[in-house]
Design a protein that fits this description.
The protein is 80% helix and 2% strand. The chain is mainly alpha-helical.
Length: 184
C-alpha cells in the first residue's frame, strides 16, 4: 500500500502538472488571439493599400480616356509609360491578392491552434479533476490507485484522439476568386 507521503506527492504532481500546463496554455491562447488581432490590423492596412492602387488605376484610365478622345497627345513615349504603369499595377494587384490569401490561411491556422490549446487545457483538466480523487486520508489501495490512473490515462487519450481527429485538416484558401491554395 502506498504511503500517505507517496499519495500526497502523486497528488501534488498531478495538480502542479495540470495547473501549470493549463496556465501556460492560457498564455499561449492569449498570445495567439493577440496575433490574430494584429494580423487583422495588417490586413486592414493592406485593404487600404489595395484601394489606393485602385485609385491609381482609375487615374491611369482617365489618362487613357483623354488620349483616346484626342484631348492629349499620343506619343511612343506616352504609350511606353502607360504599358509600364499597367504592368506595375498588375504586379501590385497580384501581390495584394496574395497577401490577402496569406492572411486567410494564417487566420485559419490561428483558429486551429486556439482550438488545439483549448482541447489540451481540457485534457489537463481531466488530470486536475482526477487528482482530487486521490484521498491520502482514506488510505486507498494500490488497486484503487491503479484504476484511477488507468481511468485518467484513458480519458486523456480519448480527448487527445478527438482533438487530433478534429484538427488534422488542410488549411485551405477558398474565399477569393483568384483560386484555391492548400497549405498542408
Amino acid at each position: 500500500m502506498p504511503t500517505k507521503t507517496m499519495l500526497h506527492e502523486l497528488k501534488r504532481l498531478l495538480l502542479d502538472t495540470a495547473s501549470g500546463g493549463s496556465r501556460q496554455l492560457t498564455e499561449v491562447e492569449s498570445d495567439l488571439v493577440q496575433t490574430n488581432i494584429l494580423l487583422g490590423e495588417a490586413i486592414g492596412k493592406l485593404g487600404n493599400s489595395f484601394m489606393d492602387l485602385h485609385r491609381s488605376v482609375q487615374a491611369q484610365q482617365e489618362i487613357l480616356g483623354e488620349l483616346m478622345s484626342g484631348q492629349g497627345e499620343l506619343t511612343a513615349d506616352s504609350i511606353a509609360r502607360l504599358k509600364e504603369t499597367q504592368g506595375e499595377v498588375s504586379h501590385h494587384v497580384n501581390a495584394a491578392v496574395t497577401g490577402l490569401q496569406f492572411q486567410d490561411m494564417t487566420s485559419q491556422l490561428l483558429e486551429r491552434i486556439v482550438r488545439r490549446v483549448i482541447g489540451l487545457r481540457e485534457a489537463l483538466g481531466v488530470l486536475s479533476a482526477n487528482s482530487f480523487e486521490i484521498l491520502p486520508e482514506q488510505g486507498q489501495t494500490d488497486e484503487e490507485l491503479e484504476a484511477l490512473l488507468a481511468d485518467t490515462v484513458k480519458a486523456i487519450e480519448e480527448r487527445l484522439t478527438v482533438l487530433d481527429n478534429g484538427l488534422w485538416k488542410a488549411v485551405r484558401q477558398t474565399r477569393m476568386e483568384s483560386g484555391d491554395i492548400e497549405l498542408f
